[in-house]
Design goal:
- The protein is built from seven helices and 15 strands.
- Among the domains are: 130 residues, no CATH class; 120 residues, no CATH class.
- The protein has a five-stranded mixed β-sheet with strand order 1-15-14-13-12, with helices on one face. The chain has a four-stranded mixed β-sheet with strand order 4-5-6-9.
- The N and C termini lie far apart (152 Å).
- Strand 14 and strand 15 form a beta hairpin.
- By secondary structure, the protein is of the alpha+beta class.
Length: 359
Amino acid sequence: MKKMTKISGLITVAFFIAGCQSSGEETNPQTSESAENESAESPENNSSTEDNVEIDNSSEAEDGTTDEGDDENMDSSDEAKTSNDEESSTDVYAGAQKNSNYFIDTQVFDQESRFYTAYAIHRDEKEDQALSPEERLETSLLNNDPSEQDILSSYADLSFERPDLFIHFNEDGNELSATSAQSNLFFDALYGISDLYGVEEITFLNPYDEKGMTVAERAVDEPTAVKDERGLTRGYYTIYDEGLEETLFLPGGELEEQVVNENDEPLSFPETIEAMGSIDNADAFYSSAIVEGIQIVDSSITNGVATVQYTMDEDIVTEADRVVLENAIQLAALDFHAWEVVIMNDTLKESNTYPLIGQ
Protein backbone atom coordinates (compact mmCIF):
# COMPACT_ATOMS: atom_id res chain seq x y z
CA MET A 1 0.00 0.00 0.00
CA LYS A 2 2.79 2.38 0.89
CA LYS A 3 4.45 1.49 -2.41
CA MET A 4 1.31 2.38 -4.35
CA THR A 5 1.15 5.70 -2.56
CA LYS A 6 4.79 6.50 -3.48
CA ILE A 7 4.21 5.49 -7.07
CA SER A 8 1.13 7.65 -7.22
CA GLY A 9 3.09 10.61 -5.78
CA LEU A 10 5.88 10.16 -8.32
CA ILE A 11 3.40 10.14 -11.14
CA THR A 12 1.81 13.32 -9.81
CA VAL A 13 5.22 15.06 -9.55
CA ALA A 14 6.07 13.94 -13.08
CA PHE A 15 2.89 15.45 -14.46
CA PHE A 16 3.51 18.67 -12.58
CA ILE A 17 7.05 19.01 -14.00
CA ALA A 18 5.82 18.26 -17.52
CA GLY A 19 3.12 20.90 -17.19
CA CYS A 20 5.66 23.51 -16.13
CA GLN A 21 7.91 22.73 -19.07
CA SER A 22 4.95 22.94 -21.47
CA SER A 23 3.92 26.31 -20.08
CA GLY A 24 7.47 27.65 -20.47
CA GLU A 25 7.62 26.52 -24.09
CA GLU A 26 4.31 28.26 -24.86
CA THR A 27 5.60 31.47 -23.33
CA ASN A 28 8.99 31.50 -25.11
CA PRO A 29 7.52 31.52 -28.65
CA GLN A 30 5.72 34.75 -27.81
CA THR A 31 8.91 36.27 -26.50
CA SER A 32 10.79 35.11 -29.58
CA GLU A 33 8.04 36.34 -31.84
CA SER A 34 8.12 39.73 -30.16
CA ALA A 35 11.88 39.89 -30.62
CA GLU A 36 11.54 38.94 -34.25
CA ASN A 37 8.96 41.66 -34.72
CA GLU A 38 11.26 44.21 -33.16
CA SER A 39 14.07 42.95 -35.35
CA ALA A 40 11.84 43.27 -38.44
CA GLU A 41 10.75 46.81 -37.51
CA SER A 42 14.24 48.15 -36.84
CA PRO A 43 15.25 48.56 -40.55
CA GLU A 44 12.19 50.77 -41.05
CA ASN A 45 13.16 52.84 -38.06
CA ASN A 46 16.70 53.11 -39.34
CA SER A 47 15.39 54.11 -42.77
CA SER A 48 13.15 56.77 -41.23
CA THR A 49 16.08 58.13 -39.28
CA GLU A 50 18.21 58.27 -42.42
CA ASP A 51 15.41 60.03 -44.27
CA ASN A 52 15.14 62.60 -41.53
CA VAL A 53 18.88 63.20 -41.74
CA GLU A 54 18.66 63.58 -45.51
CA ILE A 55 15.75 66.04 -45.20
CA ASP A 56 17.67 68.06 -42.64
CA ASN A 57 20.72 68.09 -44.89
CA SER A 58 18.57 69.01 -47.87
CA SER A 59 16.99 71.85 -45.90
CA GLU A 60 20.38 73.08 -44.91
CA ALA A 61 21.52 72.86 -48.52
CA GLU A 62 18.48 74.76 -49.66
CA ASP A 63 19.03 77.35 -46.97
CA GLY A 64 22.59 77.70 -48.14
CA THR A 65 21.46 78.14 -51.76
CA THR A 66 18.90 80.77 -50.74
CA ASP A 67 21.52 82.67 -48.83
CA GLU A 68 23.82 82.59 -51.85
CA GLY A 69 20.91 83.73 -54.07
CA ASP A 70 20.16 86.57 -51.69
CA ASP A 71 23.79 87.61 -51.82
CA GLU A 72 23.74 87.50 -55.63
CA ASN A 73 20.52 89.53 -55.73
CA MET A 74 22.02 92.07 -53.38
CA ASP A 75 25.13 92.27 -55.55
CA SER A 76 22.99 92.71 -58.70
CA SER A 77 20.91 95.35 -56.98
CA ASP A 78 24.04 97.20 -55.92
CA GLU A 79 25.45 96.97 -59.44
CA ALA A 80 22.19 98.26 -60.95
CA LYS A 81 22.09 101.12 -58.46
CA THR A 82 25.70 102.00 -59.24
CA SER A 83 24.94 101.84 -62.98
CA ASN A 84 21.88 104.08 -62.57
CA ASP A 85 23.88 106.51 -60.50
CA GLU A 86 26.55 106.62 -63.20
CA GLU A 87 23.93 107.15 -65.93
CA SER A 88 22.25 109.88 -63.90
CA SER A 89 25.54 111.65 -63.41
CA THR A 90 26.38 111.45 -67.12
CA ASP A 91 22.91 112.54 -68.30
CA VAL A 92 22.88 115.85 -66.46
CA TYR A 93 22.64 118.74 -68.94
CA ALA A 94 23.12 122.43 -68.32
CA GLY A 95 19.77 123.79 -69.48
CA ALA A 96 18.82 127.24 -70.76
CA GLN A 97 15.31 128.57 -71.48
CA LYS A 98 15.58 131.05 -74.31
CA ASN A 99 13.57 134.26 -74.57
CA SER A 100 10.20 133.72 -76.25
CA ASN A 101 10.51 136.97 -78.25
CA TYR A 102 11.46 135.57 -81.63
CA PHE A 103 11.13 137.59 -84.84
CA ILE A 104 11.16 136.39 -88.44
CA ASP A 105 13.01 138.52 -90.96
CA THR A 106 13.32 138.13 -94.72
CA GLN A 107 15.79 139.20 -97.39
CA VAL A 108 15.47 139.07 -101.15
CA PHE A 109 18.23 136.94 -102.62
CA ASP A 110 19.03 137.17 -106.34
CA GLN A 111 20.52 134.05 -107.87
CA GLU A 112 20.82 133.42 -111.61
CA SER A 113 18.02 135.77 -112.62
CA ARG A 114 15.68 134.38 -110.00
CA PHE A 115 14.64 135.98 -106.76
CA TYR A 116 14.42 133.94 -103.56
CA THR A 117 12.98 134.92 -100.21
CA ALA A 118 15.51 134.02 -97.54
CA TYR A 119 14.60 133.83 -93.85
CA ALA A 120 16.27 134.53 -90.53
CA ILE A 121 15.12 134.05 -86.96
CA HIS A 122 16.22 136.44 -84.22
CA ARG A 123 15.49 136.52 -80.51
CA ASP A 124 15.46 139.66 -78.44
CA GLU A 125 17.45 138.41 -75.47
CA LYS A 126 17.59 141.91 -73.94
CA GLU A 127 13.81 142.34 -73.80
CA ASP A 128 12.68 141.45 -70.29
CA GLN A 129 8.98 141.71 -71.05
CA ALA A 130 7.67 139.15 -73.50
CA LEU A 131 5.77 140.57 -76.46
CA SER A 132 2.58 138.85 -77.55
CA PRO A 133 2.64 136.68 -80.69
CA GLU A 134 0.28 139.23 -82.30
CA GLU A 135 2.76 142.06 -81.68
CA ARG A 136 5.70 140.06 -82.98
CA LEU A 137 3.80 138.90 -86.08
CA GLU A 138 2.80 142.48 -86.93
CA THR A 139 6.35 143.74 -86.36
CA SER A 140 7.81 141.05 -88.62
CA LEU A 141 5.29 141.67 -91.42
CA LEU A 142 5.62 145.45 -91.38
CA ASN A 143 9.42 145.44 -91.20
CA ASN A 144 9.81 142.94 -94.04
CA ASP A 145 7.35 144.24 -96.64
CA PRO A 146 9.31 144.17 -99.93
CA SER A 147 6.85 146.37 -101.88
CA GLU A 148 8.06 149.83 -102.93
CA GLN A 149 5.16 151.64 -101.30
CA ASP A 150 5.20 149.54 -98.10
CA ILE A 151 1.66 148.33 -98.70
CA LEU A 152 1.07 146.85 -95.26
CA SER A 153 2.41 149.68 -93.13
CA SER A 154 0.97 152.43 -95.35
CA TYR A 155 -2.48 151.16 -96.24
CA ALA A 156 -3.53 148.40 -93.86
CA ASP A 157 -4.33 147.46 -90.29
CA LEU A 158 -3.60 143.96 -89.06
CA SER A 159 -5.52 141.87 -86.54
CA PHE A 160 -4.51 138.38 -85.48
CA GLU A 161 -7.22 136.12 -84.10
CA ARG A 162 -5.36 132.86 -83.78
CA PRO A 163 -5.03 131.06 -86.05
CA ASP A 164 -6.43 133.58 -88.57
CA LEU A 165 -4.98 136.89 -89.76
CA PHE A 166 -7.21 139.72 -91.00
CA ILE A 167 -5.78 142.51 -93.15
CA HIS A 168 -8.06 145.57 -93.30
CA PHE A 169 -7.11 147.92 -96.15
CA ASN A 170 -8.03 151.59 -95.97
CA GLU A 171 -7.19 152.18 -99.61
CA ASP A 172 -7.93 150.40 -102.86
CA GLY A 173 -6.80 150.70 -106.44
CA ASN A 174 -3.48 152.10 -107.68
CA GLU A 175 -2.02 152.57 -104.22
CA LEU A 176 -1.84 148.77 -103.91
CA SER A 177 -0.34 148.12 -107.33
CA ALA A 178 3.01 146.41 -107.89
CA THR A 179 5.12 144.87 -110.64
CA SER A 180 4.90 141.13 -111.15
CA ALA A 181 8.27 140.61 -109.45
CA GLN A 182 7.27 142.77 -106.50
CA SER A 183 3.92 141.02 -106.29
CA ASN A 184 5.60 137.61 -106.02
CA LEU A 185 8.04 138.81 -103.37
CA PHE A 186 5.25 140.54 -101.42
CA PHE A 187 3.14 137.41 -101.17
CA ASP A 188 6.17 135.16 -100.54
CA ALA A 189 7.07 137.24 -97.49
CA LEU A 190 3.45 137.60 -96.36
CA TYR A 191 2.65 133.89 -96.47
CA GLY A 192 6.10 132.75 -95.35
CA ILE A 193 6.27 134.93 -92.25
CA SER A 194 2.63 134.25 -91.38
CA ASP A 195 3.20 130.50 -91.57
CA LEU A 196 6.18 130.72 -89.20
CA TYR A 197 3.91 132.38 -86.62
CA GLY A 198 1.26 129.69 -86.92
CA VAL A 199 -1.22 131.59 -89.12
CA GLU A 200 -3.47 129.21 -91.03
CA GLU A 201 -5.74 131.55 -92.99
CA ILE A 202 -5.57 135.18 -94.18
CA THR A 203 -8.62 137.29 -94.99
CA PHE A 204 -8.25 140.49 -97.03
CA LEU A 205 -10.90 143.16 -96.41
CA ASN A 206 -11.46 146.29 -98.52
CA PRO A 207 -12.15 149.79 -97.11
CA TYR A 208 -15.82 148.81 -96.74
CA ASP A 209 -14.84 145.88 -94.53
CA GLU A 210 -15.92 143.46 -97.25
CA LYS A 211 -14.18 140.64 -99.04
CA GLY A 212 -13.22 141.08 -102.64
CA MET A 213 -10.30 143.29 -103.73
CA THR A 214 -7.01 143.37 -105.60
CA VAL A 215 -3.70 143.55 -103.74
CA ALA A 216 -0.34 143.82 -105.52
CA GLU A 217 -1.90 142.80 -108.83
CA ARG A 218 -3.57 139.72 -107.36
CA ALA A 219 -7.30 139.24 -106.80
CA VAL A 220 -8.00 138.09 -103.25
CA ASP A 221 -11.75 137.63 -103.05
CA GLU A 222 -11.82 134.81 -100.49
CA PRO A 223 -9.81 133.85 -97.41
CA THR A 224 -6.63 132.07 -98.44
CA ALA A 225 -5.02 129.04 -96.77
CA VAL A 226 -1.43 129.88 -95.92
CA LYS A 227 -0.10 126.35 -96.41
CA ASP A 228 -1.66 126.12 -99.87
CA GLU A 229 -0.27 129.46 -100.96
CA ARG A 230 3.19 128.85 -99.59
CA GLY A 231 3.50 125.31 -100.85
CA LEU A 232 5.18 122.36 -99.17
CA THR A 233 8.29 123.37 -97.26
CA ARG A 234 10.54 120.97 -95.43
CA GLY A 235 13.98 121.82 -94.07
CA TYR A 236 16.18 124.90 -94.41
CA TYR A 237 19.51 125.41 -96.16
CA THR A 238 22.06 128.16 -95.75
CA ILE A 239 23.41 131.07 -97.78
CA TYR A 240 25.72 133.75 -96.49
CA ASP A 241 24.82 137.42 -97.02
CA GLU A 242 28.04 139.40 -97.34
CA GLY A 243 26.31 142.73 -96.81
CA LEU A 244 24.57 141.64 -93.63
CA GLU A 245 27.45 139.42 -92.57
CA GLU A 246 24.83 136.89 -91.58
CA THR A 247 23.76 133.39 -92.55
CA LEU A 248 20.24 133.26 -94.03
CA PHE A 249 18.02 130.27 -94.70
CA LEU A 250 16.18 129.08 -97.79
CA PRO A 251 13.28 126.60 -97.49
CA GLY A 252 13.88 123.22 -99.11
CA GLY A 253 10.70 123.42 -101.17
CA GLU A 254 12.05 126.49 -103.02
CA LEU A 255 15.29 124.68 -103.84
CA GLU A 256 13.81 121.44 -105.15
CA GLU A 257 15.36 119.59 -102.23
CA GLN A 258 13.59 116.54 -100.80
CA VAL A 259 10.24 117.43 -99.22
CA VAL A 260 8.37 114.10 -99.60
CA ASN A 261 9.34 110.54 -98.70
CA GLU A 262 9.30 107.40 -100.83
CA ASN A 263 5.54 107.10 -100.30
CA ASP A 264 5.07 110.60 -101.72
CA GLU A 265 4.02 111.87 -98.30
CA PRO A 266 5.38 115.07 -96.73
CA LEU A 267 8.51 114.38 -94.71
CA SER A 268 7.99 113.92 -90.99
CA PHE A 269 10.03 116.04 -88.60
CA PRO A 270 12.72 113.35 -88.08
CA GLU A 271 12.87 112.76 -91.84
CA THR A 272 13.20 116.51 -92.40
CA ILE A 273 16.13 116.82 -90.00
CA GLU A 274 17.79 113.84 -91.66
CA ALA A 275 17.27 115.31 -95.16
CA MET A 276 18.84 118.60 -94.06
CA GLY A 277 22.14 116.78 -93.58
CA SER A 278 22.76 116.43 -97.31
CA ILE A 279 22.34 118.37 -100.57
CA ASP A 280 20.69 116.69 -103.54
CA ASN A 281 21.97 119.24 -106.08
CA ALA A 282 25.71 118.83 -106.66
CA ASP A 283 25.97 122.36 -108.14
CA ALA A 284 23.98 124.01 -105.36
CA PHE A 285 24.70 127.64 -104.43
CA TYR A 286 23.55 126.89 -100.86
CA SER A 287 24.86 124.62 -98.10
CA SER A 288 23.66 122.30 -95.37
CA ALA A 289 23.30 123.74 -91.89
CA ILE A 290 24.60 120.42 -90.55
CA VAL A 291 28.30 120.92 -91.21
CA GLU A 292 31.11 118.39 -91.05
CA GLY A 293 31.76 117.35 -87.47
CA ILE A 294 28.09 117.51 -86.40
CA GLN A 295 26.14 114.28 -86.11
CA ILE A 296 22.38 114.15 -85.49
CA VAL A 297 21.72 111.48 -82.86
CA ASP A 298 17.93 111.64 -82.60
CA SER A 299 14.97 113.86 -83.45
CA SER A 300 11.26 113.71 -82.69
CA ILE A 301 8.13 115.78 -82.19
CA THR A 302 5.46 114.84 -79.65
CA ASN A 303 2.46 116.90 -78.58
CA GLY A 304 3.91 119.98 -80.22
CA VAL A 305 7.33 119.68 -78.55
CA ALA A 306 10.20 119.01 -80.96
CA THR A 307 13.48 117.53 -79.72
CA VAL A 308 16.83 117.21 -81.49
CA GLN A 309 19.99 115.64 -80.06
CA TYR A 310 23.39 115.96 -81.68
CA THR A 311 27.08 115.45 -81.07
CA MET A 312 29.97 117.48 -82.42
CA ASP A 313 33.70 117.32 -82.97
CA GLU A 314 35.00 120.12 -80.77
CA ASP A 315 38.19 120.38 -82.83
CA ILE A 316 36.42 121.54 -86.01
CA VAL A 317 32.91 122.75 -85.08
CA THR A 318 32.77 126.43 -84.10
CA GLU A 319 30.31 128.38 -81.99
CA ALA A 320 29.04 130.00 -85.19
CA ASP A 321 28.35 126.55 -86.67
CA ARG A 322 26.27 125.69 -83.62
CA VAL A 323 24.25 128.92 -83.86
CA VAL A 324 23.51 128.28 -87.55
CA LEU A 325 22.48 124.69 -86.82
CA GLU A 326 20.12 125.63 -84.00
CA ASN A 327 18.55 128.46 -86.03
CA ALA A 328 17.89 126.07 -88.92
CA ILE A 329 16.31 123.55 -86.52
CA GLN A 330 14.05 126.25 -85.07
CA LEU A 331 12.80 127.20 -88.54
CA ALA A 332 12.27 123.53 -89.43
CA ALA A 333 10.23 123.04 -86.24
CA LEU A 334 8.17 126.17 -87.01
CA ASP A 335 7.11 124.61 -90.31
CA PHE A 336 5.41 121.96 -88.14
CA HIS A 337 3.93 124.68 -85.90
CA ALA A 338 5.81 123.24 -82.92
CA TRP A 339 5.07 124.75 -79.52
CA GLU A 340 8.77 124.64 -78.64
CA VAL A 341 11.98 122.88 -79.62
CA VAL A 342 14.55 121.40 -77.24
CA ILE A 343 18.04 121.12 -78.76
CA MET A 344 20.50 118.95 -76.83
CA ASN A 345 24.24 118.95 -77.39
CA ASP A 346 25.35 115.54 -76.12
CA THR A 347 29.02 116.45 -76.42
CA LEU A 348 28.90 119.55 -74.21
CA LYS A 349 25.95 118.29 -72.13
CA GLU A 350 24.04 121.46 -72.91
CA SER A 351 20.32 121.80 -73.60
CA ASN A 352 18.59 124.87 -75.06
CA THR A 353 14.80 125.24 -75.05
CA TYR A 354 13.39 127.63 -77.66
CA PRO A 355 9.73 128.71 -77.26
CA LEU A 356 7.98 128.80 -80.64
CA ILE A 357 4.36 129.01 -81.85
CA GLY A 358 1.95 130.70 -79.46
CA GLN A 359 4.48 131.60 -76.77
